[in-house]
Design goal:
The complex is a heterodimer of chains A (234) and B (417). Chain A has 234 residues and is α/β, with parallel strands linked by helices. In chain A, helix 2 links the parallel strand 2 (31-35) and strand 3. Chain A is 26% helix and 21% strand. In chain A, the strands form two sheets. In chain A, strands 3-2-4-5-1-8-9-12 form an eight-stranded mixed β-sheet, with helices on both faces. Chain A has a single domain (4-232), classed as Rossmann fold (3-Layer(aba) Sandwich), CATH 3.40.50.880. Chain B is built from 13 helices and nine strands. A nine-stranded mixed β-sheet of chain B has the order 1-2-6-7-8-9-5-4-3. In chain B, strand 3 (101-102), helix 4 and strand 4 form a beta-alpha-beta unit. The radius of gyration of chain B is 24 Å and the shape is elongated. The chains are: A alpha/beta (234), B alpha+beta (417). At the A-B interface, helix 2 and strand 3 of A face strand 6 and helix 9 of B.
Chain lengths: 234, 417
């Protein structure tokens, strides 16, 4: 049975409180592997990342959330993911992140982990890489990175984070993607998260997430309960 | 002198919002520094923008051969000078004599800083960078105890979660000053016995972020016989709210790694002064870092500063259970407390700190015992903060079979003394 996939649209610790709580409470032994490599940081910067993640994920109860941080994707920890309940990949540059993942060959380990029932939390860039393509954020490809295909954990859907329905520029980017890729996009606002489980999606957060499809003018609000996306498989 | 084309002044890298003159000056000073020390370009590494410079051309072919790395393990460079580095006064006096203003290190708990703990020597100037405090005029020397959580899972020879970061820090000085400081550091290494032909430098630049402030770093990593022993960072454009960008020179090395190079043998023998060879590297490292935290007033908790204490103690307990050892770590904690006391001012008395480390280990041991019992019994949630013997007594009031409890205890190496 596949594990749960939590995809966050980004935002502050306060914005994502409910979503993060759902994530932490879903974990049996609360062992998390945290991977902040989408951001290029020096050792000091990665310490800040760790401070942030413990602040975000330890606020829900008084039980120890056991968070292991790994900044070297070539480390053997990735060939033994079974000892964790979840892998958490944070935000940053989506292309840099995907390049690191494919170059280190951990895409297979991650996929296998999720397929075997492990949970995954992706914040922003970490969410976008779970889609079919990461070209929803083409503007981030500032170093001509070669990988564009995501890990395809949501059928034919791609994702975009930090979505704002009032931001015409974001909508224009999505329309360009739909035109070029002929495959649907799910847009997640800050503070909202998607939970993918058994090929269905539900959302947590104050703002709705939207599904945009090629050749359909109408965008579809993703229900808070369940939204079956099997029909788009193909 | 062969310098890679991209490293030359004509091909300088642009930095947003800064006049190119600073990059130009940096490249010129770098060029002069490398020439003066007879470092020549070797090759570009991993198709990335990293350039390698060496002096001993005869060693070039061996530089990346794992068999040739870390030769100091079998052939120590100078064990006697390693002992000099046990004494902070030696370091402080040496650099004071060279004209540096010496600074007391910060406590490891970083109150109101950008990180919960101090993890780099440059953080002694954090208030200047982040809060726009007055810019110091002097070049500052500090031997700063630091804690790096990112290494918890990867403790090994040369990799520890806490160490002394010996640093020279200066702000808004010239690039020539930056390289003079680096030269002074290399001269210090020379005086200890390191040989010029055994170095290589890796040179690159990258964009980074500290707090909410983006900046660009010019970086030189210093390797000795293949081991990274230090680095020299030059930040060209650290943003400020109400004054002009800062230029920051941050040059430092890891004291324990330098001592390892000089002393040879195992990194952990060097850490424990050869006294505690029976422990695993993780046992030594976690106990050492816990001593630093406990002495500095950190108490275990599931949040914030105390989280690191609890997590480290959990890892230490897991390591001891994995090794099936009933180790009394009080002696180790005691010696590390004394060791750190030479470098930083502790706020918690020794006995209290050692008791705290032991109590938290017992708590984690009990938590693991209960976790294992829960696979068989539903009603074993007892108070884990008591000594293990008392927890075992409390378990007699549950459905857990006493013989089974004892068997699991044995599997775990027996209760912590």
């Amino acid at each position: 049975m596949n594990g749960k996939i939590f995809l966050s649209g980004g935002g502050s610790e306060k914005d994502t409180y409910d979503f993060d709580k759902e994530f932490v409470n879903s974990l049996q032994s609360r062992k998390i592997l945290y991977v902040p490599v989408a951001m290029e940081r020096d050792p000091l910067g990665y310490e800040s990342c760790y401070d942030w993640i413990i602040s975000s994920l330890t606020q829900f109860n008084d039980k120890l959330v056991d968070i292991t941080m790994c900044i070297n994707l070539r480390n053997e920890v990735f060939s033994n993911l079974d000892r964790f309940d979840a892998v958490y990949i944070g935000g940053g540059n989506t292309y840099r992140l995907l390049d690191e993942i494919y170059s280190a060959g951990i895409d297979k380990h991650l996929s296998r982990f999720i397929d075997k029932g492990g949970s995954y939390y992706g914040g922003s860039a970490g969410a976008i890489i779970m889609g079919k393509s990461i070209d929803t954020v083409l503007e981030e490809n500032d170093k001509n990175y070669k990988y564009h295909e995501g890990l395809k954990k949501a059928g034919c859907y791609s994702f975009i984070a930090h979505f704002d329905i009032k931001n015409d520029d974001k909508i224009q980017k999505i329309n360009t993607f739909l035109l070029n890729h002929k495959s649907p996009v799910i847009a997640i606002p800050e503070g909202t998260g998607l939970i993918i489980e058994n090929k269905s999606i539900r959302t947590i957060g104050k703002l709705p997430a939207f599904a945009f499809r090629p050749n359909e003018k109408k965008r579809e609000i993703i229900a808070r309960s369940f939204f079956n996306f099997l029909r788009d498989e193909g | 002198m062969t310098v890679h084309p991209k490293m030359t002044i004509e091909n300088k890298n642009k930095v947003e919002d800064r006049p190119d003159i600073s990059i130009c000056a940096y490249q010129q000073a770098l060029h002069d520094f490398l020439s003066k020390n007879n470092f020549v370009s070797f090759r570009q590494l991993d198709e990335k923008e990293i350039y390698c410079f060496v002096t001993g051309i005869q060693n070039v072919k061996d530089l990346f051969n794992p068999k040739e790395k870390f030769q100091f393990i079998k052939n120590p460079i100078n064990p006697e000078s390693s002992r000099l580095l046990d004494n902070p006064h030696f370091l402080y006096e040496y650099f004071k004599e060279k004209g540096y203003k010496t600074s007391e290190p910060k406590p490891i708990v970083n109150s109101n800083g950008t990180t919960l703990f101090i993890s780099s020597g440059v953080q002694i100037l954090e208030n200047v960078f982040q809060n726009e405090d007055q810019i110091p005029q002097e070049h500052i020397f500090v031997a700063q105890p630091v804690f790096r959580t990112q290494y918890i899972e990867f403790v090994d020879e040369g990799i520890s979660t806490s160490f002394i970061n010996v640093s020279i820090e200066s702000i808004n000085k010239t690039t020539a000053d930056h390289f003079q400081n680096l030269q002074n550091l290399l001269n210090f290494f020379d005086a200890l016995g390191l040989r010029k032909n055994d170095y290589h430098f890796e040179i690159d630049h990258k964009d980074s972020k500290w707090g909410d402030k983006k900046h660009r770093q010019q970086r030189i990593k210093i390797y000795y016989q293949g081991l990274e022993i230090g680095d020299a960072l030059f930040i060209e454009n650290f943003p400020q709210n109400s004054r002009d960008y800062l230029q920051i020179s941050d040059i430092g090395f890891g004291l324990e790694r330098l001592k390892w190079v000089l002393r040879g043998g195992s990194y952990w023998e060097q850490i424990t002064s050869g006294a505690c060879t029976d422990y695993t590297s993780k046992t030594i490292d976690f106990t050492r870092t816990l001593s630093l935290l406990a002495g500095s007033g950190v108490v275990p908790h599931f949040k914030a500063h105390g989280y690191r204490f609890r997590l480290l103690s959990k890892r230490l307990t897991e390591e001891c259970i994995r090794e099936k050892r009933r180790q009394d770590l009080d002696i180790l904690a005691d010696s590390f407390y004394d060791q750190w006391s030479n470098w930083t001012r502790f706020t918690t008395p020794k006995e209290e700190a050692i008791n705290l480390i032991r109590r938290e280990r017992v708590r984690n041991f009990n938590a693991e015992l209960i976790s294992r019992l829960k696979e068989f019994y539903y009603d074993v949630d007892v108070d884990i903060s008591k000594p293990t013997e008392e927890v075992v007594m409390l378990l007699r009031g549950t459905s857990a079979n006493p013989k089974h409890v004892q068997d699991i205890l044995q599997e775990m190496g027996g209760p912590i003394k």
